[in-house]
Design a protein that fits this description.
It is built from 9 helices and 9 strands. With 231 residues, the protein is an alpha/beta fold. It has a single domain, classed as Rossmann fold, CATH 3.40.50. α5 packs across α6.
């Protein structure tokens, strides 16, 4: 089994896993947060095993049990709302942190694949917030295309570098609340622009009134998106 800490949920049908979904939590959270979604997804993905690892760094905010994929020191969502044109530069400054964390995540994915004898085409990444940044960063740079990437309430780092580093084009679903105060919904537009420019297939959903979170509308869309790819 993968060495890093974090909860798992085996296939609900009781058989050997035919696919895997890896949840990537947000900044300051941990794997226990998103694994709560696994029973819902398992209803339509009974032969899927679910993993929810803790990110590799202790959260700089100091809360016991919190983790981060990389530092967000200096991140100011209010500045983004005042001037959306600053978004690419702000998110690009997070690129080195994502690069550093990518070794951890790539190793984790490889270990899950080896443990269950699964091809990349049967492994999906489901990210939230900073976890979405990591899912997009790693998923688009793996040589063998993953089954899918689902990104809730996130952004993309290193958009300027993606054309030279893109190695695969897994299908992507993006879900974002229109009232998100943490990662402004304008970040979704930047992801869509980058994916389109690099010919990565994607679907996107904005949820009116939703703040920084995952609601039934987004979860249902994600389950429908994943079912044909992981079943």
């Amino acid at each position: 089994m993968p060495a890093p800490s974090g909860p798992t949920l085996p296939p609900s049908d009781g058989n050997a896993a035919k696919s895997a979904a890896i949840f990537l939590h947000g900044y300051g959270s941990n794997g226990d947060d998103l694994i709560g979604l696994a029973p819902f997804f398992a209803q339509s993905l009974p032969n899927t095993v679910f993993y929810s690892p803790n990110a590799p760094e202790k959260w700089e905010g100091g809360f016991f049990g919190g983790f981060q994929w990389f530092t967000l020191a200096g991140y100011d969502p209010e500045a983004l709302r005042r001037n959306a044109a600053t978004a690419p530069g702000i998110y690009d400054r997070m690129f080195e942190g994502a690069v550093k964390a990518s070794g951890f995540l790539n190793s984790y994915i490889d270990t899950v694949m080896a443990h269950h004898a699964l091809p990349a085409s049967k492994v999906a990444l489901i990210g939230f917030s900073q976890g979405t940044m990591m899912a997009l960063h790693v998923g688009l740079r793996r040589t063998e295309a993953l089954a899918a990437i689902v990104g809730f309430s996130g952004a993309m780092v290193g958009t300027a570098k993606l054309p030279a580093e893109l190695k695969s084009r897994p299908p992507v679903l993006l879900v974002h609340g229109e009232a998100d105060p943490v990662v402004p919904v304008e970040a979704l537009g930047e992801i869509k622009k980058s994916l389109s420019a690099n010919n990565v297939p994607y679907d996107a959903l904005t949820v009116p009134g939703l703040q920084h979170g995952i609601d039934p509308t987004g979860a249902n869309r994600a389950a429908a998106f994943l079912k044909p790819k992981l079943s």
